[in-house]
Amino acid sequence: MKQLSRRIRNVSTSRTVQLSGAIDDLRRQGKDIVNLGIGEPYEAPLPHVVSATIHALQRGEIRYGPAAGLPELRHAVARQFEGYGAHNILITNGSKQALYTALQVLCDPEDQVIIPKPCWVSFCEQIKLAGAAPVLVNTVAHQLDCHAIEEAVNERTKAIIINSPNNPTGAVYPGKDLKTIADLARAHDLYLISDEAYEAFVYDGLTHCSLFDFPHVRDRLIVAGSFSKTHCMTGFRVGYAAAPGEIITAMARLQSHLTGNVCTFAQYGALAATKRDPSHFDRWRNTLEKKRDITLEILKDLPCSTPNGAFYVFPDVTRFLKKGESTEALATEILTRVNVAVAPGEAFGGDGHIRICYAVEEEQLICGLERLAQVFNQRKGALQK
After folding, report:
1. Which residues make beta-bridge pairs with 344?
2. Which residue in 313, 314, 323, 312 sits closest to 379, CA to CA?
3. What confidence tens digit (pLDDT) does each residue in 73-102 have?
4. Which CATH number fits domain 6-44+278-384: 3.90.640.10, 3.90.1150.10, 1.50.10.10, 3.30.200.20?
5. What CA–CA distance (Å, rounded) separates 203 from 335?
6. Beta-carbon neighbour count of residue 181 at 10 Å?
7. Is 382 in contact with 375 (CB distance < 8 Å)?
8. Which CATH class is domain 63-273?
9. pLDDT tier at 365, thresholds 50, 70, 90
């Protein structure tokens, strides 16, 4: 029998999606799993979002729509971007599709795309699916090493992906470093892809800085955003891309063959979400910042840079590993021993680390963290013998 394509054989399954399936299986077996491994807010969408979605269904908004998205939703999203209109916005099936489609439109075989690591699990695989090659560049204490990024640029480099606030580390990149990257992209004629799915989650009095803040690179910039995290709408699968009209037209052309429109009634829910009271974000940010601090305190024996954004911590667990042991093996042991799910660092290019999501109900968070602390205390004692 003939083999499947080299393209798909070269791509790994998303480790976080795999983890989600494993957790569901264990829960069906009656296990009390504390899920700190999946990046999903526990809160429900606001009532007016749910109501708008239901009303859209009831009035028959169940037909095909424009492949690029509802015009009114595109207009609403465009208001976030100075000088942009609906023609600069594509509504996608989550920000994951926005990123995938952008790479398909930009990349040719043999191209290279630079990514600071650790990085989100799907970046490398999406680049491979576009026929290009990912080039991973180390960060310094999870912050950009701009010099190393420039050193990685060559004649095959097509684009740089920046993700701030970062998944998995929670790092927030300062404006001065983003400007350096913007200038670098301009100087070397590169595209920039900015994954800003966590833009609403920045702590410690900091503010989110976007690559869109630098007008001289807007002609080569694609911003990917999402309603999933910001508005607790993960299952709705509504995201967007914001970019120059020529790029959006190309992405919409691809989307017309790939999926067509995003779920019509879900888009009406997203439209309602754009009218959310901004003060709600302040309350939620304060809650998440408190949970971050709880996490760092309970796990204070694990070396960890304090994350200023997103809703993850990415502690270094190297000294708790047995010789030759991977964090995937550690995560499996934690799940089977104490029923707590964490994501292994290898999935993100961060060997020797684990990712912990603290966007869960506080009682569950503390329970899960205390179970984790128990495992690490036992390992510490065993390794000292």
Report:
1. 354
2. 323
3. 999 999 999 999 999 999 999 999 999 999
4. 3.90.1150.10
5. 30
6. 24
7. no
8. alpha beta
9. very high
